[in-house]
C-alpha cells in the first residue's frame, strides 16, 4: 500500500519560514525521503555532523508517534476505552502482542484513521528547531513514562546501558526518549533543548539544536590553541625540501632526482614502497630508485615528497597517526576505483590518488591533542564528558580538520590542487577553482571508504555530486561500494604498512 502524497517542503531554508512535511494517515516512515531532507537542512547551516544523529532521533520520534496512534486505533477496534484505567490495563498487553506480531497491520489501520503526524523545522537566529506533532492527546500514563525516561536518561553513558536495564521499548514513550537524550548529550547538546508540549488535542516534541554549541569567544580561544599547535610544527626535513626543490626544476632529469633520493636510505625505501604499491595500479615489482621515480612520474614526485615529509613530521609527533594514514590510503584507492569505474577524468587519476593521501592531515592534530590541551578545551566547553566524539571534537571547537589541515599544508607550501582537496573535500561545492572536480572525486571516495565505519550513506551524499557521477539510485551506490570494497580487500596487507 503506497503512502499518500506528502506536503512539499519549502526551499528557502534560511528565511525563517516554516518547513514542514505532514504524514497523513501514516502507514510507514518514508526513511529515504527523511534522510535526504535532513541532509539538505543540515548542509544549509554547515551542521553536517548532525545528519546521522538527527535522522536517528527524528525517525525514532516518528515511529513512536505511529505506535501511539496505532494504540488508539487498536483500542477502538477492541471496544476499549483508552482513558479507563481498567480497560487500559486489559488492553495494553493485547496491543503489545498485536504490535509485536502484526506490526504492519497496526500501521495500515492508521490509513483509515483521523490521526496524523507533522514534522516541521524552523530556523531561528541562534538555533534550528524540529517539531514532531501528533494530533492525539497524550495519556497521563504516557506522559509519566516520558518524564521518567527523561529523568533516567542522565544516568546512562550510552544506549547499551539503557538496554541492560530493560527499558520498555514497546510503548511509544520507552527507549526512544532515552536514546534521544543520550544522542543529544553526547553531541554536546544539553537536555534543555528537549521539550514536551501537550494540549487537549495534540502532543508535540520539540528539539532545538543550537547553531553554535559553545560561545563564540570560547570557540575563538580553542581555535587559537589549535593554530598555535600548527604554528609549532617544524618545517619539512631538509633532505625532503631539497628533493622538492629539484622536482620543481624545469630541466630536472630522472638520473639527477634518483641520485638525490639514493643519498637517504630511508627515503629510498619509501620511494620503492610507494612505487610498488597499488597506488599506481597493477605492475611488476621494481628494485631500482630510477625505475621507481619513473613509475611515480615527475608530475607526481613533488606531492610524493611532500607526503613523505608530512609523514616524518607527524608520525614522530602524534600518537594516533596510524588511524589517519590507514583511512587516507583507503580513500586514495577508492578515488582510483571511482575514476576507473566511471571512466571520467582519467587525467586526474594520479593527482586524485596522491591528494587523497593528504586530505585528512588536519585530523592528526585534532585526534592527537595532548592532555593539557584537551583539558583546556573541556574547560572552555564547560564539558564534563570524558570523551570528545569525532563530530563534537570539530564543530564544538569552532574549526574543522579541513581548516587545520589547510593551515598545515599552507605552512609547508603544498601545491594548489592539494590545498583545495584538503580544504574542500567535505564541501566540494565551495571550491571555485579548476580543482572542483578533483575535490568532488575525493569527497565521494571519502564517503565510500567511510561507509564500513558506519559513516554516511547514499542519502547523505550531495545530490549534485551523485548526478555528476551518474549514480541514479541507492542500489547503484551500494553496488559500487561493494565492488570497491572487494577490490580494496585485495590490497589490505599492502595498505597496512605503506605510510605507517
From TrEMBL:
InterPro entries noted in UniProt: HD/PDEase_dom, HDOD, RNase_Y/CdgJ
Pfam families: HDOD (PF08668)
Residue intervals of the HDOD domain: 233-428
Name used for this protein in its record: HDOD domain-containing protein
PROSITE patterns: HDOD
Naturally occurring in which organism (per UniProt): Leptospira mtsangambouensis
Amino acid at each position: 500500500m503506497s503512502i499518500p502524497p506528502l506536503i512539499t517542503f519549502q526551499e528557502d531554508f534560511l528565511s525563517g519560514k516554516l518547513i514542514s512535511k505532514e504524514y497523513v494517515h501514516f502507514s510507514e516512515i518514508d526513511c529515504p525521503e527523511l534522510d535526504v531532507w535532513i541532509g539538505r537542512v543540515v548542509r544549509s547551516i554547515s551542521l553536517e555532523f548532525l545528519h546521522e544523529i538527527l535522522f536517528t532521533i527524528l525517525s525514532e520520534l516518528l515511529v513512536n508517534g505511529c505506535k501511539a496512534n496505532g494504540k488508539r486505533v487498536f483500542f477502538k477496534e477492541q471496544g476499549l476505552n483508552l482513558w479507563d484505567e481498567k480497560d487500559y490495563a486489559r488492553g495494553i498487553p493485547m496491543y503489545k502482542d498485536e504490535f509485536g506480531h502484526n506490526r504492519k497491520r497496526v500501521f495500515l489501520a492508521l490509513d483509515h484513521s483521523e490521526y496524523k503526524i507533522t514534522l516541521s523545522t524552523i530556523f531561528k537566529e541562534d538555533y534550528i528547531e524540529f517539531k514532531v506533532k501528533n494530533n492525539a492527546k497524550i495519556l497521563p500514563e504516557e506522559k509519566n513514562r516520558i518524564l521518567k525516561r527523561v529523568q533516567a536518561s542522565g544516568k546512562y553513558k550510552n544506549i547499551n546501558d539503557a538496554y541492560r536495564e530493560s527499558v520498555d521499548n514497546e510503548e511509544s514513550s520507552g527507549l526512544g526518549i532515552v536514546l534521544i537524550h543520550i544522542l543529544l548529550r553526547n553531541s554536546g547538546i544539553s537536555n534543555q533543548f528537549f521539550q514536551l508540549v501537550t494540549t487537549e488535542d495534540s502532543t508535540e516534541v520539540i528539539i532545538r539544536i543550537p547553531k553554535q554549541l559553545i560561545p563564540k569567544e570560547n570557540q575563538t580561544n580553542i581555535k587559537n590553541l589549535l593554530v598555535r599547535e600548527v604554528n609549532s610544527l617544524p618545517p619539512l626535513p631538509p633532505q625532503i625540501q631539497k628533493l622538492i626543490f629539484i622536482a620543481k626544476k624545469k630541466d630536472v632529469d630522472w638520473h639527477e632526482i634518483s641520485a638525490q633520493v639514493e643519498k637517504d636510505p630511508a627515503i629510498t625505501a619509501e620511494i620503492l614502497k610507494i612505487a610498488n604499491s597499488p597506488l599506481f595500479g597493477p605492475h611488476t615489482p621494481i628494485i631500482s630508485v630510477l625505475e621507481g621515480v619513473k613509475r611515480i612520474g615527475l608530475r607526481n614526485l613533488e606531492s610524493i615528497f611532500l607526503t613523505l615529509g608530512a609523514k616524518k613530521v607527524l608520525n614522530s609527533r602524534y600518537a594516533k597517526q596510524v588511524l589517519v594514514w590507514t583511512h587516507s590510503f583507503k580513500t586514495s584507492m577508492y578515488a582510483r576505483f571511482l575514476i576507473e569505474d566511471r571512466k571520467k577524468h582519467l587525467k586526474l587519476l594520479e593527482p586524485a590518488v596522491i591528494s587523497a593521501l593528504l586530505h585528512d592531515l588536519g585530523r592528526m592534530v585534532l585526534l592527537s591533542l595532548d592532555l593539557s590541551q584537551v583539558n583546556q578545551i573541556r574547560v572552555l566547553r564547560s564539558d564534563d564528558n570524558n570523551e570528545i566524539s569525532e563530530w563534537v571534537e570539530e564543530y564544538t571547537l569552532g574549526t574543522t580538520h579541513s581548516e587545520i589541515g589547510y593551515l598545515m599544508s599552507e605552512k609547508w607550501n603544498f601545491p594548489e590542487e592539494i590545498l583545495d582537496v584538503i580544504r574542500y573535500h567535505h564541501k566540494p561545492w565551495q571550491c571555485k577553482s579548476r580543482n572542483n572536480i578533483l575535490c568532488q572525486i575525493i569527497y565521494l571516495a571519502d564517503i565510500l571508504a567511510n561507509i564500513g565505519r558506519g559513516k554516511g550513506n547514499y542519502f547523505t551524499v550531495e545530490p549534485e555530486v551523485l548526478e555528476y557521477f551518474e549514480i541514479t539510485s541507492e542500489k547503484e551506490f551500494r553496488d559500487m561500494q561493494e565492488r570497491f570494497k572487494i577490490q580494496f580487500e585485495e590490497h589490505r596487507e599492502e595498505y597496512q604498512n605503506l605510510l605507517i
